[in-house]
Amino acid sequence: MGAAVGPTRVAELPGREGERVQVAGWLTHRRGHGAIAFLVVRDGSGEVQAVVRRDHAPEAFARAEGLGQESALRVVGPVRAQPRAPGGYEVEVEELEVLSPAADYPIAPKEHGIEFLLDHRHLWLRHRRPAAVMRIRDTVLWAAEAFLRGEGFVRVDAPILMGTAAENTTQLFRTDYFGEPAYLTQSGQLYAEAAAMALGRVYTLGPTFRAERSKTRRHLLEFWMLEPEMAFCDLEGSMALQERLVTYVVERVLERCGEALRTLERDTAPLERVRPPFPRLRYDDAAEWLRAQGLALGPEEDFGAPHETALSQAFDRPLFVHAFPRAVKPFYMEPEPGRPDRVLAADLLAPEGYGEIIGGSQRIADADLLRRRLQEAGLDEAAYDWYLDLRRYGGVVHSGFGLGIERTVAWIAGLDHVREAVPFPRTYNRLRP
RNA sequence: UCCUCGAUAGCUCAAUGGUAGAGCACUCGGCUGUUAACCGAGCGGUUGCAGGUUCGAGUCCUGCUCGAGGAGCCA
Questions:
Q1: What ipTM describes this predicted complex?
Q2: Nucleotide nearest to A308 (CA to C1')
């Protein structure tokens, strides 16, 4: 066949000592030292130091001089173990080809402010920290899907363009559908419920949108959500699955992303404690505990950010809060048997102060009750006609939840803001790059 | 939308109401094992915008713009 001989990936250099290899990548850093120059080359799989000596490779040495940061280049030469080199290996350059020179790269090897970095996100992604976060995000998504498929779930994606609001709780981004108003989805849940009645266990995975002028570390205008939905499953069953899903995801990240976690200087001890069962608190008990801590909280009032933070700092593992007052939750949640003022809803709070990463509930199975709730919420029943059909034609006990991808990544990676957990964050006042 | 803070060189930041500076980046020179190398020199400014007070404003006042942190909302 005569397969083309391509460059060797940096990650594959260990074990190739003595071999003459070709490495292609970008110049992340250059250190001149008289007749010897050190080039740090990044190819996406890793970074390696390349050494160029004037007397050993005069042509390569001349080309390396004046080469700007982020120039694309290819070096050829033997690999050897070198304890003085970062990573333990280096390439002794014999040939150097400049594929594409770069000049005046804006991100210098020094500290930068967040505004500058976000303005240059398209370039910032090349750097070690954001690249490590993207690897962790990839592993979180991969592991979550692998787990669900192993449990017999089918991925069924929900539409992003909507004619009506799903929950009617938050502001929606409005767009135009041939003269009709249309909205960007804020949740795939209602569609997941329809699919669960067809396929039993399903999940949706995709972007969701909230047109809120939020400016906090846990909010994005556009974020990714994983929403499993299960027929013949009550809240207990859903919470048990959530424990296993979150544990599986954390285990896979610990197993596969060691280098990335070290780059981010993430203390992995709290992650190693993530194992079922997670502690559980009823809303009423959590509220009582919060008031005992001196935090203000009215009767039947939903938790705010300070409450969530306090709760999630008090436990060293993810914490379920459940049995919320009906008034603070959306219309579609099943009331608790014997406590009609409480609903079968559970939020999962990540520890270390990160707060809510999952919101879930058992859904109302009865058509009449659902219709009443729609009326109470002031929603247009006609718009939910298809949703009511799910109860008219064989409504069954079913539950589901939404897991926020960026919040989960931020927690696992130890980030201080969800905007770093997505390649190109969409926040209030920031639509580019 | 509200509260707080901020905006000075490409970047990170200094500068009693009195001549706008440093480090990094960049350019040039030196150095044969660097690790954000180091040493020397150079380049680099309508101090976010518009007004006002003052002999004099980066600094004080007013308005605006943009950003950051937080609240609300939620994944």
A1: 0.85
A2: B74
